Every structure is written in structure tokens, then in C-alpha cells.
Amino acid sequence: MIKDGVIKMQEMANVYFYGKRYSVPADLTIMTAMEYAGYQLLRGCGCRYGFCGACAIIYRVAGSNTLQSCLACQTQVQDGMYVATLPYFPTVKKVYDMETVKPEEQLMMQLYPEIYACIGCNACTKACSKELNVMQYIAYAQRNELEKCANESFDCVSCGICASRCPAGISHPMVGLLARRLVGKYIQPEAKHMKVKAASVRNGELDAIMAELLAKPLDEIKELYNARDIEK
Amino acid sequence: MLTEQMLESIKKVEATRPERLKTEPRRLTAEEKDALLREFHPDYKDHAFDTIGIGPNKGERAPQELADLLNSNSLIHDVDINLDKVDYEADVLIIGGGGAGAAAAVEAHLAGASVLIVTKLRLGDANSMMAQGGIQAATKENDSPMQHYLDAFGGGHYAAKPELLKRLVMDGPGCIEWLNNMGVLFDKEPDGTMVTTGGGGISRKRLLASKDYTGMEIMRVLRDEVRNLEIPVIEFTAALDLLLDENGNAAGAVLKDLETGEYKIAKGKTVIIATGGAGRLHYQGFPTSNHYGATADGLIMAYRAGANLLYQDTIQYHPTGVAYPVQLFGALVTEKVRAIGAMLLNIDGEAFVHPLETRDVAASAIIRECNQRNRGIPTPNGYGAWLDTPLIDMINGKGFIQKSIPAVYGMYKNYGIDVREIPVLVYPTIHYQNGGMEIDADATTPKIKNLFVGGEASGGIHGRNRVLGNSVLDFVVFGRFCGQQAAKKVPEVKLGKKLSLEHVYDYSKALKEAGIETDRRSPKLFPDYTREVN
Known about the structure:
Mean pLDDT of chain A: 95
Structural class of chain A: alpha+beta
Largest interface: A-B, 71 and 86 residues
Distance between the termini of chain A: 48 Å
Low-confidence stretches of chain B: none
Number of strands of chain A: 7
Helix content of chain A: 25-40%
Strand content of chain B: 15-25%
CATH class of one domain in chain B: Alpha Beta
Oligomer: heterodimer
Structural class of chain B: alpha/beta
CATH topology of the largest domain in chain A: Fumarate Reductase Iron-sulfur Protein, Chain B, domain 2
Helix content of chain B: 25-40%
CATH architecture of one domain in chain B: 3-Layer(bba) Sandwich
Order of helices and strands of chain A: EEEEHEEEHHHHHHHHH
Strand order of the largest sheet of chain A: 4-3-7-5-6
Number of domains of chain A: 2
């Protein structure tokens, strides 16, 4: 690596993928370190920027017995890291019809009764790759406090690490997702302006004026574009 | 973590802030924009383009990396594949599991068709999932689809196909209603009014959002709906080439299970290509904000089957990709950050461009500032310009950053950077494929029957540049439309008797005849980041 005109030794870290040691540049993420080590990724690699939850990782650092977890694409390697990937976890997704479900207490009870078996160990929260308060949002779901559950779970990327650590067999991401959908559909107040606009298009009220715009010669459209008033 | 030089420059940024809070940088005239683009936009770097050697767009230019894949033989041109053993069959075969594919699947299913989604990664592993800033739709009283049309048409340099753009803007409000009805959470005021922001090149505050996780929120609901409807999805299975029947109509695809290596045959009365973009081809060596699988596969297989491209030479470089820290190099910093007040600054803390110019103009201005004027800030990967994030809370009040852009805040916090306190370094990153497969008003390809294209893989909706928030709208509007249209077509489709790969063999012959001798194979499927260890 050439920096400031002098060649510096690149700082390296020893990491262990599935128990096997590799020496990798210390500034890499776990994901790019695996690629540096020679892995061609298929499972366990998605958006590479922390949105898709494909690259869940469980690791320990040598000398510590604490089990840690993270997303491989969002976390820098550490010396002595023992890494296992969790590219898939069998979470339970119940099927429901959004048009007929109701945001009532029985629904969680029917679809995800295991949430009531939560023993309060908080392993889900400790494991969350997005630092969410997972146990808290499950508690909100138990009490049918759906808006709170939706807010608390909002950043969830469904990586599944929480579910992998749960002694009660809860599929936390699916619970949060149900709560958010119920809030979006049934609980948030309606956006009246949006309904009005959607209806006016549907009823054909804008067809004539739209056709008129499309029929204008290009020069006239350019003039309209350049003369737009811009909302402050 | 920051270099001495960066820290020095931050002092200058802080010093100019009080004055900048009072003044808005000048917007460029139409002529100034044209000149800036011509000189600095990567689309104008002729040496980075090659000519397409054969096929319907023969002789046209394409980015070198894309042209190479087009001027290649198929991965299966010399593989013996039994086309009589059909593994999967559906009325509507959807290739791609992103937003467009999922929206198409939901609509086609509701219209009564049998649907199959195949995707080389997982359902939802797509650029859709990563869209942050928001989705445009003219939902407010002071706005209209006509105003939206003007913004998008001008922003796309008047090159959009009018009938497609009309559908995009007219279907906007209805699609928001559709999403909201499925339970997508939008940012709302207590009375239900949707929170709207402006953005580069748009004349109304029209951008609707779910914080800065808009694409993720929409994608995870669409994915959940696909699962609720129990639509079959075959994951980690890539489509390699389309299958045509003896009449030259789309009839299916050759798939490969990427884990077992097994080839599979999928038959469809109609086929929808929803394979997304091409950022992972890393045109001109740029980094990309795109997901791992964005390698233009759909363009390659549809072109090989005889469909034509449109605007394949225009790429969107998002002005604000992460330039530093290196672990985030190329990641997107949503345009919403500029929309809510952050300015673009050089090493002296001077605003060198209005923060709300369109993406191509803003990106070109950053490139000029760094590469020609030498006013960029050096980083381990090159240069960056400041995006002055602390301005956001100064303008909108404390706490606004965490409330409105939690993803950006969290991404930097991981690396010890607090965007509320210090600005961040950005440089353009490949973000979007403006062009793609040409489609007609009914979302089908002009040259191949029963073949539909939806989302980023299509070309012509946005023209030669795309304004923010229209890609999310695009995958919802045209994903749904493709699904509806494909399902409607099903009853009248009479597939021929035989599935055929003749077009693949003909393509190889044509390459040879054109003097293109190559051992390159396509589609690419994934970028090659694995270090050569031998």
C-alpha cells in the first residue's frame, strides 16, 4: 500500500472463518475479508449495505466467551474473531389475508401464540444486528400495542439472528412485520389528500388536461419546464 | 479516524456555515448544465464506451463492460440441455425477485394466473430494498400528475417515451393507495397527511417516505404479500437464457440451480423480466450503491433473444456515494440528505453547486471540483466533497437527523462518525441504469411477443436521467402493470409445440460472422470480488 509516497506494511488481522485461520487486511469488513480469503459468496451476501439481512454472522473473539452477532457487510474484522455465517434460519411465517384480519388482540394469539411463551431472557435484544430492543417489541405485541411494536421494530432487516437465539421459538421479525402492516393499513389515520388524488385519476378527471400537455410541441414543454415555480 | 487534512478542512466548513445558512447557492442555467455534463459526466467519456457488434442495436454505443457482455457467447451455448424435460410451468414466469417482480407476481396472481418467481438470490435481495429517500407521487393539493410529468420529462432531458412516463405519473397516487392498503407505513402527520419533501430537480414537495428506509419498507411488505398469497418462489436459481417457441415468442427460460449446478427448464405462457440494474458491472471503475446481483442479466438474455435496448448508454451516477470511510466506499447517502438541507462543499468549505440540482448535474459538479479544480478532499480511494450534514439539524431543529434519516445516521455511527457533528465525504457512485430493454405502452418488448419488462431492466420511462423517487414508483407502477398485462394475455397465448434455444446458437454464429472471436460468456450473474489466491 502506498501512502504519502512511502510503502507501509498493511496492518493485518487473523480471523477464523468456520474455525480456519486467514490473515486479512484489518480494515476490511467481515464480508470483504471472506472474499479476500478466497470465498466466492453466494448465500450470505445480498445488498452489501445493511438493508437486506442476508449476511447474519455469529462470532466470538478469542479469549472471550461472549457470543456476538452482526451483519458481515457492516462490521469490520477484529483480530481473533471466530466467525460462523447464518445465511438462512427457519423462521415461521404465518399466512394471512390483510383484507380480513383485524388489529385485535386475538390475532397475535392466533397467528403467533409462541410470543406469550417469552421467558424474558432478552437474548433476542442482545443478539440484534440493528441494536433494536427486540424483547420490548415482542412485549408490545403481546399487549397488542401495535403502534409501539411497529416503531420499535421498524429498522428490522429480518436477518433472523434473534430467532436463532430464542428459547421460546419466536420468529420475531415476522411479528414485527405483522404489527407494522396492521398499523399501516388499519391504525394510522388516512391520508385524505392521497385518496382524493387517486380518485380523481381513477375517475378520469385528469385525462383531458394530461392529453393536452402531451400534445404540446417540445419547445413549449421545454418552456414550461424551465419556467416552473419551485415549492420552497 | 479522519486524516489531519480532513480535520483542517472541517474547520473551514464550520467557519463558512453561518454565512451559508443565510444564502442559497445559485442554480445553473440550462446552458451551463449542458456544458458541465458534456465536460464531466461519465456518460460523455467516449473511451469508456464500445460498440455493440450484433443484434438489433448493432453499431450503437454501450458502456464497455456492458458491450463486452453483449458481444459474448451465452453461458450455455455449448451445453447440451434437454428442453423436453420441463421442471416448472406457469402462466406467468417472472425472472427476478425484487420490487417489480414481487409487485407483478401479486397482480398476476390476483388476476387468476398461475405465477412462478425465479431469482438468483433471495426474494427481496434487490436494489428496491435499498432505496432510501422515498417515492414520488403527486398526492398533494398543490400538485398534479402533469407537474410530476414536467419534472420527470425535463429531468430526463426530454427523452422519456411520453406514453410510459404518463403511466408512471398518472398511476402514482393510486399506487400509493395500493401500498398503504397493504400496510406500507408512510411518514404521516398526526392527522394522516403524508410528510413530503422536495429533491433534486423537482418542483413540488412530492417525495413520500418511510424514514430513510422507503424501499425496504415497501419491499418487505411486497415480499410478505407474495408469501401470503403462497406464490412459488425458486431462490438461488438464475435464469441464463430465454426460451422461445418455434414462432419466436417468449416461452420460458433455462435456469441453473446455483447451489447444485443443475440446469432446469421453466415454461411460461408469458415471461416478465424484472432483473434490475447493472451497478455491479462497475462501469469506468466506479463503485456502486447497488446490490450484489446487479449485473444486467435480463438485458443480456433478452437481447440475445432478439429484443432491443434503449438508452443503454446512460447511467446514473448518484452524486453522494460514500467516499470515506473505506468500509462504506460506494454506499449510498440518500438524496434526502440534500433535500432536507445538507450542502455540497469543497476543501475550503465553499458551496460549489446548488444542492438540489438533478443527480447528473450534481455528480458532474463534484467530479469537476475534485478532478479539475483540485478542490476535493483526499481520501484513501481518491477524493471526496463534503456533504454538510450538521446543517440539517441547524435548519430543521435538533433530533431531526435521527428522526428522518436513521439509516444514514446508523451507517456512519458504526464507524465512529456522528453525522450530526461533522460533515461526511462523498463522491459519485453508480446508482441506476437509466436505459434498458425498450418497452411499448403495454410493457411488452416491441420485437418479442409475450415478453414483458418491468422496473430498472426497462428503458424509456425516465429518459436519459432519472429524478429521485421515480425508481421506486417505477417498480411499483410497472411491476403491477406487467403482472396485470401478462395475466390478461395468458388466455390468448397459444404456445408453440417446441421450446427452442436456436436464437442462442444463431447469436454465436452472428458473433463469429461479425469477426467477434471471444471466449467471454454472459450473463455475468455476480461480480468477481474474490481475491485470486493462486
